[in-house]
Design a protein that fits this description.
- It is a single chain.
- It is built from 16 helices and 26 strands.
- The chain is of the alpha+beta class and 573 residues long.
- The strands form 4 sheets. Strands 1, 2, 8, 9, 10, 11, 17 and 18 form an 8-stranded mixed beta sheet that branches. An 8-stranded mixed beta sheet has the order 6-5-13-14-15-12-16-19.
- A hairpin with a 4-residue loop joins strand 20 and strand 21.
- The radius of gyration is 25 Å and the shape is globular.
- The structure holds flavin-adenine dinucleotide.
- Flavin-adenine dinucleotide binds next to helix 3, strand 2, strand 9 and helix 10.
């Protein structure tokens, strides 16, 4: 029995080769109760995979006080013997981590950045400052933080232990799955023996080589290119500027692309695009990497190599994100090329999307039909992310003919004309995706709410996340403008027995009176909710607007019903 755990090991799917410059924590294996007792267990929620996606979901459930069991075949975070993989975390992810309670640790360890510059040879051909862009400009979190993925995963593990409710089982590999009308059954192998676990809901967060695809007969649409890169994680005594620099044509890399980012521990991630016919083992050899670094930074630059290795990527999206009792998320649902940092960030958003829905259904506050909107919302996001990153991949590795001609023309125009700079595509950075096809989002809904600041009634500063934490997994109705007493009474009656908390938002002039009255003197809260003047916004626990409206009437009740997966007649599925 015990050998099955060793025999069934399979790779994580990323093509890393050698080297290990990072020390990863190791978590203890504990014999599961089902192995000791010989009984089949039963859980409402089982999450398979403790990568960044599965751990985010687990932590979000723990924060909502919902029990879950997490099974991971490994006993650590990150990938043993490999580099960090993910490094760039977008504002929406940072806002989610703020709600989960690990943002201060990420901010302390990571590097904040907002400026990116792109070069062709020595010429700057494109630049941006994300702080100036409306998708990022209001939040309490910065547009991006660079930090090694395994740090975030480690912080999540520790936070899950602090919060309780969720059980993390290391060295528990799922090797079999079936489902029927009553439950799903997982077969799990461990160093102490095998066991079976029944579950109402199974979340597949096993990454890009998910065995669940085959087990449920999932179909995927995808493409594999021939673009390959070499990662060099390095430290310098003298720091280059803390901006994101990319080269479409780098003279020190035989005129191919290069990425340069600073992350935690003063480690620089430098990615070098390889020639299509290059030998990845040769390009990633330490002496060859050192030679290239000398060409880039000069022969006298002192460099410590932390990790070096090649990688390739593919682009793939599952056709349905729910198959019966199984929900697919993170890399198990879609794999994208790393340009724009859309892989891990969308896994984090997948997790945040499903967590409150599972909690609401388990607490019987929402219809089970709400769970179907996970597909409606996150599949739209997945498709969009695949499309956006694919365009970048094509720009960076154009096919001969039209694509290459277009790229050459775009670079040449961008050298001289501002208007052409937007044609340069070295990665469109990850943003919170908008939901346009979800039945849970009605008029005005589907957009993310930035974590902006406002003032509580006593004058102290608050943020949207504070409101969401105060609402404890319930919805928020934010009513903007001083409400007439009759409208206020109607609002209270309409929301009386619903899982919502009402917040009355007044401008700087009107005094705020009670805890649920807040002041928004600069209109940031209103702007973040995408409404103007006297209006209401129904905000979901994942900080997305479910709907907006002007008058306090039955429209608000309908919107809440839709957001909870209940039909307009009030009948749940
Ligand atoms: C070079 C590179 C750079 C990247 N940069 C970024 C970036 O800057 N920002 C970003 O957001 N993303 C980035 N990504 C993508 C990001 O790393 C992935 O999208 C992310 O790791 C996906 O997380 P996941 O939790 O879905 O899957 P994984 O991280 O693959 O985790 C899957 C987990 O499931 C476990 N598992 C697998 N099978 C089983 C089983 N049968 N039973 C039990 N457990 C199992 C594994 O042990 C693992 O812990 C990058 C990727 C690469 C390769």
């Amino acid at each position: 029995m015990q050998d099955r755990y060793a025999e069934t090991a399979f790779s994580n799917g990323y093509q890393f080769t050698s080297g290990s410059g990072y020390q990863l924590p190791e978590y203890a294996f504990v014999t599961p109760p089902e192995v000791s007792s010989g009984q089949v267990g039963h859980e409402q929620i089982v999450i398979v995979g403790a990568g960044i996606t599965g751990l985010t979901l687990a932590c979000a459930l723990a924060r909502l006080g919902v029990r879950a069991v997490v099974l991971d075949e490994d006993n650590t975070v990150g990938v043993k013997g490999a580099s960090s993989r993910g490094i760039c975390y977008t504002q929406k992810s940072l806002e989610i981590f703020d709600r989960l309670g690990i943002y201060p640790r990420i901010a302390a360890k990571g590097i904040q950045w907002s400026v990116g510059r792109t070069f062709a040879g020595k010429d700057e051909v494109y630049s941006f400052d994300l702080r100036q862009q409306s998708a990022y400009n209001l939040s309490s979190q910065p547009p991006f933080i660079n930090i090694q993925q395994f740090y975030i995963e480690g912080y999540l593990v520790e936070r899950i232990h602090e919060l309780g409710d969720v059980e993390l089982r290391w060295k528990n590999r799922v090797i079999g799955f079936e489902q029927d009308t009553d439950a799903a059954t997982l077969t799990v192998t461990t160093p102490a023996g095998d066991y079976r676990l029944r579950a109402d809901h199974v979340i597949d967060a096993t990454g890009s080589r998910s065995p669940f695809h085959q087990w449920v007969g999932a179909t995927l649409t995808g493409r594999k290119g021939d673009d390959r890169w070499c990662i060099a994680d390095v430290r310098f005594p003298d720091r280059p500027p803390g901006e994101r620099h990319t080269w479409i044509e780098a003279p020190f890399n035989e005129n191919r692309a290069v990425w340069q980012h600073l992350m935690g521990d003063d480690v620089w991630r430098i990615d070098y695009q390889m020639a299509p016919d290059a030998d990845p083992a040769y390009v990633s050899r330490e002496d060859v990497v050192r030679e290239r670094l000398a060409r880039q930074f000069g022969p006298d630059m002192q460099v410590e190599i932390v990790w070096v290795g090649p990688y390739a990527y593919r682009s793939e999206c599952i056709d349905r994100m729910r198959h019966g009792r199984v929900f697919f998320m993170g890399d198990a649902a879609k794999v994208v090329s790393p340009f724009g940092a859309r892989g891990g960030n969308t896994g984090i958003a997948d997790a945040d999307n499903l967590a409150w829905k599972l909690a609401a259904v388990i607490r019987q506050q929402a219809s089970p039909r709400l769970l179907d909107t996970f597909h409606d919302e996150r599949h739209e996001a997945a498709r969009q992310n695949v499309q956006v990153t694919h365009r970048t991949a094509r720009f960076l590795r154009p096919a001969d003919g039209m694509e290459r001609t277009f790229r050459t023309a775009a670079i040449s125009l961008a050298r001289q004309h501002l208007f052409a700079r937007s044609l340069i595509n070295t990665g469109r950075m990850a943003v919170a995706n908008t939901y346009t096809q979800s039945p849970a989002c009605q008029t005005g809904g589907g957009q993310s709410v930035q974590n902006v600041r406002f003032a509580w009634a006593d004058g102290s500063a608050g943020t949207v996340n504070d409101l969401l934490l105060w609402a404890q997994g319930n919805f928020l109705v934010l009513a903007f403008g001083d409400l007439a007493p009759a409208a206020l009474k109607r609002l209270r009656t309409l929301t009386d027995h619903a899982p919502v908390r009402v917040v009355l938002v007044v401008d700087g002039q009107t005094p705020a009176r009670a805890r649920e009255h807040v002041r928004d003197p600069q209109g940031h809260l209103q702007g973040a909710c995408h409404v103007f003047g006297h209006a209401w916004a129904l905000v979901r626990p994942d900080s997305y607007v479910a709907a907006t409206g002007e008058s306090i009437d039955a429209g608000l009740v309908d919107a809440l019903g839709a957001a909870l997966g209940v039909t307009s007649e009030g009948a749940s599925a």
